[in-house]
Design a protein that fits this description.
The protein has 120 residues and is α+β, with helices and mostly antiparallel strands. The protein has a single domain, classed as 2,3-Dihydroxybiphenyl 1,2-Dioxygenase, domain 1 (Roll). It is built from 3 helices and 9 strands; from the N terminus they run E-H-E-E-E-H-E-H-E-E-E-E. Strands 5, 6, 7, 8 and 9 form a 5-stranded mixed beta sheet that branches. It has a 4-stranded mixed beta sheet with strand order 1-4-3-2, with helices on one face.
Amino acid sequence: MADTKSQWLTQTPLVPTGGSLAESLAFYTQHLGFTVEWQGGTMAGVCRDQVRFNLQENSNQEWIDNSSISIGVSDLAGLYAEYKDIPARISPPAMRPWGRREMHIILPSGVCLQFWQLEG
């Protein structure tokens, strides 16, 4: 019998809301373009294209301050144009020393979303 390893197929980060779940869901759907896939108790699953998060109602500041999610996108400039006026702290796309063009969004909760596009 061949020794086969299971392939990792996807990931869904658990992300703290930093406040109420309802407020977080409103922000993710109204400003970031996510849809709600499921909701129960103090958690909900949201998705946009092929990216999914599980949001958990939690205000633990240490967890929030250390939450950073890196997301590859097909059109960083287009995403910046879409997001530049939302109520969050946003850095414009810039080439980083490690060879990636990136922009960062600090959500009202304090969670950091890092978006990147490989040059090519």
